Amino acid sequence: MKATKILLVEDDELDIISVERSLKKIESEYTLYTAYNGIEALRILRDESIGLVPDVILLDINMPRMNGIEFLKVIREDEKLKKLKVFIMTTSSEGRDRSEAEELGISGYIIKPLNYTENTKRPDSMDAFVQFHLRKILLDESM
User: Is this structure's pTM higher than 0.85?
Assistant: First the structure.
């Protein structure tokens, strides 16, 4: 079984750490690439010396420089990238974000947990959340 290639496009260092920690707990081979915004992700995807064709992209919506929706629009217009599986992983529950992402052909829309009383992320729930969704995604990819 080949290692799943994952591109994580996320600007929040704590979320990146949570995804990395959760991936380590899943008994599946993977290689994780990280970009902090859409521009950096495009540079990685288009760099022929890297040669990355990810099995799945985990994409945040709210990022600086190029957000997730802008990134999606660009890859869906690119012949080499338009069929990539993209899962939105965001704290945004805006209906407009979700419908626009769905129109751009995403594979899933995952809302990250927050502690709404303090408006901060809860590491314990984030870890369980990421493990649950990543396990489903990775098992689906390896079939």
Answer: no
| Residue 131's CATH number | 3.40.50.2300
Residue-number span of the structural domain to which 34 is assigned: 4-141
Q: What is the C-alpha to C-alpha distance for residues 136 and 104, in angstroms, rounded to an integer?
A: 22
pLDDT tens sequence for the chain (143 residues):
578 899 999 999 988 888 888 888 877 788 999 999 999 999 999 999 988 999 999 999 999 999 999 999 999 999 999 999 999 888 777 788 888 989 999 988 887 765 444 445 555 555 565 666 666 666 665 54
User: How many domains in the chain?
Assistant: 1
Question: CB–CB of 29/4 below 8 Å?
Answer: yes
Calpha distance 104→94 (Å, rounded): 16
Report how far residue 73's alpha carbon sits from residue 82's, in angstroms, rounded to the nearest whole number: 9
Rounded Cα distance, 28 and 36, in Å: 24
Residue carrying structure tokens 């290692």: 3
The C-alpha atoms of residue 19 and residue 137 are separated, in whole angstroms, by: 13
